[in-house]
Structures
1.
Amino acid sequence: MSSSGSTYGDIHRYEPARESTAAAVAIVLLTIVEVVFVGLFTFGLVNGWGYSPLGNMYLGGILAIIFVDLAFVLMVYRKEFLPDVMIVKKRRRKWEDLYIREEDVDGTAFAEGDPLESVKRAVYPYYKR
């Protein structure tokens, strides 16, 4: 579904989320795995596995698995349960706000006024700011 509006803030494209049951089951299973690994990490931390070099590596691996699993949960949730929305935004050039005042966006004639002043302004954009 798309609209023909081109003013700032209009929704250009809106695609509803799929909300599949398989994705919901996958999120539930990944969350259960997440809770198991968090419990294992907490158990190892309380029992002092971090004092030995091998136990410290083991705890680091479990922590990495926890964050990778969380990333997969968030990825599946974003893909399956959030709608795809594109909003019209005002397009500006990168340098527009930095170098040019709003009234000078269209430029000025080179021969207008003092030519030396125009050259200084062209060479050094922050002149008389």
2.
Amino acid sequence: MSRPLEGLRVVEFGTFVSAPYCGKLFAGYGAEVIKVEPPGGDIARAHGPFPGGKPNPEASALFLYLNTGKQSVVLDPREPADRERLLRLIATADVLIENYRPADLRALGLDFATLAERNPRLVMVSITPFGQSGPYADYRGNNLIAFAMGGQMYITGTLEGGPLKNGGYQADYQGGLNAFSAAMLAVLAAERDGVGQHVDISIQRCMAPILEASVPYFCYLGQWSGIRRGNHMASFIGIYPCADGHIGIHLMPRNWKPFLEVIGRPDLGEDPRFATQADRVQHNDELMAELYAWAATETKHDLYRRAGAGRAPIAFVHTMQDLIESPQLNARGFLQRIDHPVAGEAVYPGPPWWMGPGDWDAGRAPLLGEHTNVVLESIGA
């Protein structure tokens, strides 16, 4: 069975997280993805963790995850001969993914207008902190800056402690995910019209639409109506420490009675302080104290099992070990084992979507420059 994107050629001229994640999705769904790396390799190769804690450009967990199923070609576009090789390679591509500053691409003569002259059907996907135009277009940025300037950080944290950074490189991954989705729209348009286009992905802009209703609230009211509440929106909507981790509850009025049955506290249902949702809000601190005391005695897996049987809205916060052992993720084939000639065998997360058996094949990440000769020979360069 053919994978969905077989027959599509993608050149990835990008680094670290956003462009490589976009390229990873193309590769997993069957496209031929040729990753162009500088002589020293993608900077992600220098980021750990590494097996045994020993830095190795062929064994970075970040690089190995982001670059499954790709081919690696080493070129230095600052050198005229390599720049011409890169141009010839891009001329054979359906899609080009890049995440460099617009000014840097212009300096290399790799702007969209130049590339489109050689390949009119080219879909060029540019992922940058602020987009291709505007006063910040050539500013440098990173994941932290995207969280801050996209508004995500403003709604995260506590009232007392202020804004809080999200974990990991989630802004960069959002950039890569949105780039893949937008690129596929552009590919469909190119097939229909015979003309490519430049897809402009601003990571700042990717952050702003996922702020729930914060922006409309502000536009309607002239102020942000939310409050940073940390782990608790209220006593009955929040995260509590338990005996072996953390659990989360989200109680609507209809859930109150089954919740009390599951936690073995039906007496709280007779307490006039907690009779209605309005009462529970009024006596928030007292109810929160009760729930803290209760949760501290529970173990997360046992509680989750009882909650499911009793139709109570309780879940546990999954650790990385919990994710690896998740019966749901394993039943759906999400976790895959991939062998690598240097890093060895490891478990890798699968794709964000399920499209049917055989739709995704990660393959291993390439060694630096592993496919340079083969790819360049195939284009007569």
3.
Amino acid sequence: MNITLIALGSRGDVQPYVALGLGLRRAGHAVRLASHDTFRDLVTGAGLEFAPMRGNVQEVVNSPEMRAALASGNMLAINRVSARATQQGALLWAEDGLVAARDADLLVAGLGGLNVAQALSEKRRVPLVEAHVVPFHPTRAFPGAIFPPATARLGGWANRLSHVLTRQVMWQMFRAADTRARREVLGLPAAPLFGPRPLRSLPTLHGISPAVLPRPADWDASQHLTGSWLLPQEAWTPPPALEAFLNAGPPPVSIGFGSMTTPDPQATTRAVVAALARSGQRAVLLSGWGGLSAAEVPETVFVTDSVPHDWLFPRVAAVVHHGGAGTTAAGLAAGVPNIVVPFFGDQPFWGERVRQLGVGPAPVPRRALNDRTLADALTRAVTDTGMRDRAAALGARIRAEDGVARAAEVISGLSL
């Protein structure tokens, strides 16, 4: 089959689909991955065909409006900023998507590319497989990923309803932009009020480890929990300064918030450095898209823009991150305790899951992050023997899975 994957968003939103694309190519399919030009090297470096989708997510994330919204943690405010960016990008994505899907027999997309892919599926008359790295099908077992974890206290009915509402929140945010793209670019009528209808019913893939999130008993056979979609570890040589730092003392902790930004990176960095001093830890600080600053750090802290997670995480005592689905999967696969500092969206869901599994302390919400709260979490993560043992055992289970191969097997078995 000719398969086009559509993955929009930050690196954490894109990298799992690069891994999935590699698995599909190994299974004998021709694979094209459509994403922002920022990730061209990531895609082509993995040997996949790249199709550019215009737009710069980093510019949106670093805008004053989004920084303020992220700092507030208010999902409505975040959605408003995202909706405005979507209005600007939808026409371009429809145009670029038509090119990316020009000869496709099958489209594959997760949350980042789902709405675009649904319209393209209708236009090109090509079936679509939903492939998510967060749970995105109703269940009574746990709440929707963007709902507060406390929703579970209301019982199974509330959990199931929250999944329905999660899909509607994401669709309604995009609906006006989708209608315009359908009319002005694709020549299609507006989608129904509550969302597009699939061209045909196909299985849904969830690239999540069943060791992290057991398969809900009320999911039917069309819902597949395949295991995480992780890239094979690349042959990466660290800069000499980083290697020297790692060898100069006990294993440090890794701290980074990926694509998340803060209104005052210097203040966030000062809080992180003070927490390290209180807890007596060394650290590798991953500055990411503007959440941490390289200024005024002691010699016990090494600052770098980014390091491959699969190389760094197994070498540290604990991983502090924002709780994105991709980073959480990498952190848990490394077999070390995870400390989640959630900003918004599905991040509190993953932070709570880490706590429930006993492989990390209770999450430290971004608005509650200070030297004391982070120091307390760091101390627990590096001194709790049971937590370290559970994290190591969970990591071994995840690494023994082959979620990519399982997902490719499901897709290869489709009768189109």
